[in-house]
Structures are given as C-alpha cells and as structure tokens.
Design brief:
Helix content is 35%, strand content 14%. A hairpin with a 3-residue loop joins strand 14 and strand 15. It is an alpha/beta fold and 414 residues long. The strands form four sheets. A seven-stranded mixed beta sheet has the order 4-10-9-8-7-5-6, with helices on both faces. A four-stranded antiparallel beta sheet has the order 11-12-15-14, with helices on one face. The chain has a two-stranded antiparallel sheet with strand order 1-3. The chain is globular and about 70 Å long. It starts with a helix and ends in a 16-residue tail after the last helix. The structure holds pyridoxal-5'-phosphate. Pyridoxal-5'-phosphate (PLP) binds next to helix 5 and helix 6.
Length: 414
C-alpha cells in the first residue's frame, strides 16, 4: 500500500463517526462530494415520506394538521435543529425558501434601525443574497442603498458607518470555502450600531457555532446541503429572542398572526418566533427536512468539525501529492480556523475536469469562472473516498480531458 492509502486507512480506522454512513443512501460506485450542494438522502426518508402521503394525508386527511403535528412543524423542526446552530428553543423556525428568509431577515433588521439607510454585504456573496437585497430596496419605497464590502470580510471596517442598518454576510463563502469569524464580526457590526444577519447555508451542520452566545441578531440557511433535508427543502430562520416583540418582517401572512384562527381583519404579529412565519408550508417538504434533522440528532458537532477538517486537509494533501504540476491552485485556506467543509480548486479547464470526474463516479461541481468545488460531508464520507477522488482527478488531468469536446458541453445546472 502506498503512503496515502496507508494514511487513509489509519484515519478511517480511528473515525468515530464512520457508523453514521449507514444512515444515508449513496448510490453504488459513487463518491459523492456534492453534499455542500445537495446532501445525500437519509435511508429513513422513503418510508417516512410514504407514511406522510399514504397514512397522514391519504387516510387522516385534514385531521393531520393537528394529529400529525403539521401545523406546529415549522416550530418543532426549528427547535430540533436549534442545537446544531447553538440556539436555545423558541428562536428557530423551518419554513419557506432561503431566498425568502433572507428577504424577511434583512427587512426585520431594517425595521429595528429605521433611521439608517444602508445594507452592507459582500461582493462575493452568493448572488441570491444580493439580488434579494436589490429587490427589497426597489420595493421598499425608501432611499435605501446596498454597499458592497470586498471579498471575505476585507473592507468591512471601511463599509461600516453610522448609516448602516444591516450587515448580511455568509459564514462560509460558497465559492472559496473560506470561513469567517462569526463571533468577532458580529461584535464589530453591533459596535457600529448595525444588525447582523448571517447566511449559514454552507456552515450549518458542519461548523460549530453559537448563535445565542455570540449575540447574533438573525440568521438563515438551507436545509438541503449538510443538513440533508432534500432538494429545495425549506430553510431555517433564526431570530434572537430580544427581537421577537419589535422586529417586523414584510410577508405578514396569517401564520405569523397572533391569533391565526381568529381570522381578524387586521394584522397583529405573534408575540413569539411565529411572527416570522407567513403561510401554509409544503408539509411533504418539511417531512423530508425532518429526516435530515433526525439523521443528525445526537451527533456531536465538535466531532463533525474534527472529521470535516481531517477530510478537507487530507484532500488538499492528496491533491498536492497526486495532481501537482498541472497548474491547479487550491483556493480554500489551509488554516483550520479559516475553512469550512469544502475544497475549492482553481483550474482553467475546471469545468471539463469536473464533468470527466463525474463520469468516473466522483461527483463534485463547478462554479464560474474556474472553480472546481468539492464538498466533504463528514456524516457519510471516508478518507478512502477522499483519496479515490484525488486519484480520479489525477487520471483526468493526465488524460487532458478538456481536449475532448464531450466535456465542454454545459448543462443548465452546473
Ligand atoms: C450562500 C447561499 N445562500 C442562498 C442560497 C440559495 O437559496 P435558495 O434556497 O433560496 O435557492 C444558496 C444556494 O446554494 C447559497 O449557497
């Protein structure tokens, strides 16, 4: 056995999370490094969802809103997820899509700072964050402004001022995998008198965080990545308890009303986390999210983080060892405190290499202009998977797969 294979075997032998792999279905022969985009399916999902369809919907019909806990699901799932993000009960709901939750969170932040007019975000943000802020400004009827700080938190100091109402940042950069210091940045933003909103899409479930202890104002994220809640699964939304009486969100539907079944004419927000809800949720979607949350329950996030760092660190070692000399550049920071759970590699022919790797059973993805992205979900991956991925990448590089027009064809989803 060569050096890397020996190392992989030793790391896997010491992996206390290895048994969790059995909680997920992964197709035969596939090394799945796209859990940062769509997490694997929990093995419990088909039966759990079939039960929701055939028994709860089919047989029990409308009674299931109460008997099966459908009505309370946004709140009960939020509370089950809360320990993963360091939140006490009653401050997290699971509802709506991430983009919608971003709209609500930024608006809620603005409602707490009516005299301020600037929203700060990063140029490198996932585009939906910026698009949503643009739409919010356009529909606000106020003279609001989006101010962009530079990449990865740089320039935040310069962007902060006494006109800034809200700062919206991603905990982990979707492209580079860089991790920001949530506690320090939250403190800095609040010291400048602004409200801090975190997008946790790329960190929830893999990076430990303490939203309560770090005094975060609002946060939201996807459930379909490292939380394995199924394609397009509802987002989670966190609002610190201190904002439950004062913050206003714009989508004031009946689920957020203080007395939804009083069917009053005027809107009065609930005096709890429910004020951040809007309307009926796709229960079948929530049922899938429930499977993802259940698959993580009882798992130590600290242990997940340790394994995540081991997987990403080992991948970088393997890539350096096996793929050197081809002009790749590892974009993700090497420092443990500064990386999430993915490794981004810049390469001019990255798109073709990723397509060829997928054809050879190693699934990663590509982000324009030249980033090959590999996500490492510690609940179901091993160091042997990591080594295999690097070996397949090496084979694709040596074969110069980009010279084959087959691998240049761009799909609608990359
Ligand atoms: C940082 C970030 N924010 C938001 C989203 C997506 O939002 P939505 O669930 O509304 O598609 C993504 C999707 O990958 C993301 O990476």
């Amino acid at each position: 056995m060569d050096k890397l294979a020996t190392a992989a075997a030793a790391l896997d032998a010491a992996d206390e999370l290895a048994p969790l792999r059995a909680r997920f279905h992964l197709p035969e022969g596939v090394t799945y490094l796209d859990g940062n985009s769509l997490g694997a399916m929990p093995v419990a999902a088909p039966q759990h969802m079939a039960d929701a369809v055939t028994r709860a919907w089919g047989e029990r019909l409308i009674a299931s809103w109460m008997d099966d806990g459908w009505w309370q699901m946004p709140v009960t799932l939020g509370d089950r997820l809360a320990p993963v993000i360091g939140a006490g009960p009653g401050q997290t709901v699971v509802a709506d899509g991430t983009s919608v939750s971003i709209f609500k969170a930024v608006h809620a932040g603005l409602s707490l700072k009516p005299e301020r007019t600037v929203i700060v975000s990063e140029r490198a943000s996932f585009p939906t964050d910026l698009y949503i802020v643009e739409g919010l400004i356009a529909s606000s009827g106020r003279k609001l402004q989006l101010r962009l700080a530079g990449d990865a938190g740089a320039g935040l100091d310069a962007a902060l001022g006494d006109d800034v109402a809200v700062v919206l940042l991603s905990h982990v950069d979707y492209r580079t995998g860089e991790l920001l210091d949530m506690e320090a940045i939250t403190r800095k933003v609040q010291a400048a008198g602004a409200i801090m909103v975190w997008d946790l899409c790329h960190s929830a479930g893999v990076v430990p965080m303490e939203l309560d202890a770090w005094n975060v104002d609002f946060a939201m994220g996807c459930t379909y990545k490292y939380l394995n809640g199924g394609p397009g699964g509802q987002s989670f939304f966190y609002a610190a308890r201190r904002h439950h009486e004062t913050a206003r969100q714009p989508l004031t539907g009946w689920w957020g009303h203080a007395e939804p079944f009083a069917f009053e004419t005027g809107y009065e927000p609930a005096h709890s986390m429910r004020r951040f809800l809007t309307g009926s949720q796709a229960i079948l979607g929530l049922k899938a999210v429930e499977c993802g949350i259940a698959a993580m329950e009882g798992v130590s996030i600290a242990a997940v983080r340790t394994k995540s760092l081991s997987l990403t660190g080992f991948f970088m070692d393997c890539v350096e060892e096996l793929c050197g000399g081809h002009g790749l550049s590892i974009v993700t920071p090497r420092e443990r405190m500064r990386r999430g759970s993915q490794v981004a590699i810049g390469f001019e022919h990255g798109y073709a290499v990723v397509q060829a790797m997928i054809e050879n059973g190693v699934v990663g993805d590509f982000r324009a202009p030249d980033i090959m992205r590999f996500g490492f979900a510690p609940l179901y991956l091993s160091h042997a998977d990591v080594l295999r991925a690097a070996q397949v990448m090496r084979d694709c590089l040596e074969a110069q797969v980009w010279t084959d027009p087959r691998y240049q064809v761009r799909g609608e989803v990359t």
